[in-house]
Amino acid sequence: MTGYADPEILIGTWLHAQTGLKVYVDRDFNGNERSLAAVAHLQRAPGSDDVALSLDDVLLDIDVYAADSDHARNAANTIWSAMTFQLPRTTFDNGVFVTRSVAVTRPCWAPDPTLKRRTAAYRVILHGIV
Prior knowledge:
130 residues; five-stranded mixed β-sheet
């Protein structure tokens, strides 16, 4: 079946390969995984209206959780670097390619009562239909 590529799965898988971090893309992530290693949660945010048939303009929220502030900060900055410097001009195995990826908000602290959390939003423009 022809349709849009799922940007959460495409970019989540790519981000894991680039950073080595655990990246969750489903709604079942509970954010309470206790470990010193940072984990990331990538989720599509509400975005813009319809665009050209072969184009997807997506907003992605990426939250990083860790038990330690330094691990959360370092992981969030690693993701920011990958999303802004490595993701643009990437072509995935299914032919979908990225022409733009920018941080709408840089990683910043976000309240969470149980873990250290940093959050950022990214705008990604993908081309191609799978």
